[in-house]
Amino acid sequence: MRQGAPDMNEPHLNGTALRAMLERATAGEPPIGAVAQNALLAGLKRRRRRRASGIVACAAVVAAVSLIVPALTGARSTTPAPATPTGTPTVYVANRPSGPSGPGWVTPISTATNTAGPRVNVGPSYLMAATPNGKTVYVASLSSDTVIPISTATNTAGRPIKVARFPFAITITPDGKIAYVQSENSRLTPIMTATNTAGQPITINPVAGYNVAASPAITPDGKTIYVSPSSQSDVLVPVKTATDRAGKPIKLGAGPFDIAITPDGKTVYAVNDGPGTVTPIDIATGTAGPPIKVGQYPVDIAITPDGKTAYVVNSGSNTVTPIDIATNKAGPPIKVGVYPQNIAITPDGKTAYVINDDPGTVTPIDIATGKAGPPVKAGSSPVGIAITPDGKTAYVINDDPGTVVPIDIATNKTGPPIKVGGYPYAIVITP
């Protein structure tokens, strides 16, 4: 997750899942919108080292996808799952249908038993986020321009909340009071979580164009949210949450692929995919420092809970680059698996887990030594990872077999896969 915590509540539309969505789009599934196609293309950027023939085939699929967006269907759960016992974390997995049609759903998984509960139907959805208190999971639907709240006490979906056209990212303030939903054309819709009502959309940059961007990041004090207007825009825009007004854009030199903020709220890090750099931004002055060279095609970043080190995943180099936050110097790259894409750090800051696309593995990195351990087999096509708040278990979603694989962090041993069906593409864990 951004702001220096483990990557537990931040959804990722990663390359494998996006590519799978593209391939199924021509197989009779509901058509997707223009911004979804942009998201798919952004995901494909992470796989530049793949064979040229495969990329050309995917591009042909993009051209074939319809621009017509269907209305939301089945937005509410008809079979509520039992309420989760107090203090027991629950894993929530967002799924797309595996058949030619039908709504998407969210599958709750009890961490006490590693069993899946009844599905919560949410319609065609693509991403989600959870409030810090774990009481609500918000699911965004690109096709209906809505966000659907799920009560975790009853695992039922509430009334859809209308937001700006084609929402593709959700970021929630640390106090849990506001969920900011970013949509295409650089618009940011605030949702008051107490009432689940949307405010007036904020226009970040009226000339940004119809495109997706990196998920926004909010400072630990909740006062400022940093927004990328689009993946083609080489600036980052600070927005004051007290006034919902955009500030002066900060020049980066390249469009950010990911954004993270240190736990002390002093520095923003913007990952620049194309040039293979990370740009540090001093929050107090609003100025960007010299870019830090990392590996090829960096796609994800996580910061240790103590705020001392940032870890950058380089999908083109098959490495992870540590950055000393005190000096903004990059350390020696750590070799991981093939096409790494996501990283999560345990709450105690001892271990980082990196998902490797093609081998279907997760690489544990000992943060104290900077050494990578033996890869852990975690399914055939892992696309996302989340770690429980107690740091005991990591859960890895696999988009093709429709499963979630638990990993015991103490032993790095996997448990039996948990069947959730369809094509899971996003995961969050609530307290």
Structure characteristics:
mainly beta; 431 residues; 3 helices; five-stranded antiparallel sheet; globular; Methylamine Dehydrogenase, Chain H
What does this structure look like?
- This protein has 3 helices and 40 strands.
- The strands form 8 sheets. Strands 1, 2, 3, 4 and 40 form a 5-stranded antiparallel β-sheet that branches. Strands 5, 6, 7, 8 and 9 form a 5-stranded antiparallel β-sheet that branches.
- The protein is mainly beta and 431 residues long.
- The protein has one domain (15-430): Methylamine Dehydrogenase, Chain H.
- 56% of the residues are buried.
- Strand 16 and strand 17 (235-240) form a beta hairpin.
Compute the gyration radius: what is it? 19 Å
Percentage beta strand: 35-45%
Q: Average pLDDT, to the nearest integer? A: 81
User: How many individual domains?
Assistant: 1
Helical/strand content category? mainly beta
Q: What does the largest sheet look like?
A: 5 strands, antiparallel
**Number of alpha- plus pi-helical segments:** 3
Determine the CATH topology: Methylamine Dehydrogenase, Chain H
The CATH superfamily is identified as: YVTN repeat-like/Quinoprotein amine dehydrogenase
Shape-level CATH architecture:
7 Propeller
Determine the oligomeric state from the structure. Answer: single chain
Q: Catalogue the unreliable spans.
A: 1-85
Instruction: Provide the CATH top-level class.
Output: Mainly Beta
Give the terminus-to-terminus CA distance: 14 Å
| Overall form | globular
Helix content bin:
under 10%
Give the tally of β-strands.
40
